[in-house]
Write a structure and sequence with these properties.
Elements: H1 3-16, H2 18-32, H3 40-58, H4 61-85, H5 90-108, H6 134-138, H7 143-161, H8 163-173, H9 175-180, H10 185-211, H11 224-234, H12 239-262, H13 268-273, H14 275-291, H15 293-296, H16 303-311
Helix pairs in contact: 1-12, 2-7, 2-10, 2-11, 2-12, 3-4, 3-5, 3-10, 3-11, 4-5, 4-10, 7-8, 8-10, 11-12, 11-14, 12-14, 14-16
Length: 326
């Protein structure tokens, strides 16, 4: 591949990964508080449908994105109420909601299937888009792509450089100790569950109005929520590492298109499905390598060892366990 093709490939990865980055970073924020939201897949579909329907009816893309984010936040709020305040199983609630949200998206979105609607246009950043190599890769995209890149840095700064982020991580690690120090654990978990849901909803809106414009059945975003959940684990519950996992998945998707062109005799469905098992395989390999990391910690000189050290991370100690202060 020449330089032009490589530039186009990298730009495609940055653009294609935008909704996955938003969903993975949003779920990272939620899980840092000790709450796991398994409704992501259905929430992304519902948000995509709502965003497209609102944008189509109002002819306003901003309203579409706001409605999509609100739909994701609403689903997350339901998860928060049942798990944080009512003490129900977070896994069970998440599974029920992902199926419910998916069916609602297909049912209410049926009138909008295959309609030509509004979509976000590219907005090259003045001056920056002319920078050789970096300009076409990072600065010639649409606004949602820029937001996805900005979210990575903002979430990292919030989690690791602010007092609020410290309280959030304390609640996720040991809610009993945080409560004993006067921290309102329920409020922190609830608000950050909703905040993560808003980003997931924004991911759905980005799918329908930017990455894969339109609405239909299938939409093309099916399975993305499960991949985002896997990427959170892959990234060790760290927003920057989770974003790297999202870009890796987007790379696999983009390369699948090239492989299909290079080997036309292979059924196209193989390359469409391949990124999903490859991502899961990468997750399994990293997990297995992490389990054996204790034997070679500090001595990892191989490429695999360095990758494992880079991606290593532990889940919040209280993840998935409801804490009742009373």
């Amino acid at each position: 591949m020449d330089n032009l093709n490589i530039t186009i490939l990298l730009a495609s990865i940055v653009a294609g990964a935008a909704p996955i980055v938003l969903a993975a970073v949003g779920e990272t924020v939620t899980e840092k508080s000790g709450v796991i939201n398994l409704s992501l897949d259905g929430s992304i579909l519902l948000s995509a449908m709502v965003a497209f329907a609102v944008a189509y009816q109002s002819h306003n893309l901003v309203l579409g994105f706001m409605a999509g984010a609100a739909a994701g936040g609403l689903v997350a709020a339901i998860v928060g109420v049942f798990s944080v305040y009512l003490g129900q199983s977070q896994v069970a609630v998440g599974f029920v909601l992902t199926l419910t949200a998916r069916d609602l998206a297909y049912f209410f979105g049926n009138p909008y299937a295959r309609l030509y609607g509004p979509m976000v246009s590219p907005w090259p950043i003045p001056f920056l888009h002319k920078i050789p190599l970096l300009g076409p890769i990072f600065f010639q995209h649409s606004t949602p792509v820029y937001i996805s890149v900005l979210v990575i840095g903002v979430c990292w700064w919030y989690l690791y450089r602010t007092p609020s982020g410290l309280c959030l991580r304390a609640v996720g690690e040991h809610p009993q100790a945080a409560y004993a120090r006067g921290i309102n654990t329920r409020r922190i978990q609830m608000w950050h569950t909703i905040a993560g849901g808003l980003l997931v909803g924004l991911a759905g809106a980005t799918f329908a109005l930017c990455t894969k414009p339109g609405w239909g059945r299938p939409q093309g975003a099916e399975g993305t929520g499960w991949i985002a959940l896997a990427i959170v684990i892959f990234g060790g519950w760290h927003p920057v590492k989770a974003a790297l996992g999202a870009y890796l998945f987007a790379f696999l998707q983009v390369m699948g298109i090239h492989f299909q062109r290079w080997w036309p005799s292979v059924p196209s469905q193989v390359f469409q499905v391949a990124p999903f098992p490859l991502m899961i395989l990468a997750l399994v390999l990293v997990n297995v390598a992490q389990q054996g990391r204790g034997y070679t910690k500090g001595k990892a000189t191989s490429v695999l060892g360095r990758i494992v050290n880079l991606l290593s991370g532990a889940a919040p100690a209280a993840l998935g366990r409801s804490f009742r202060p009373e």
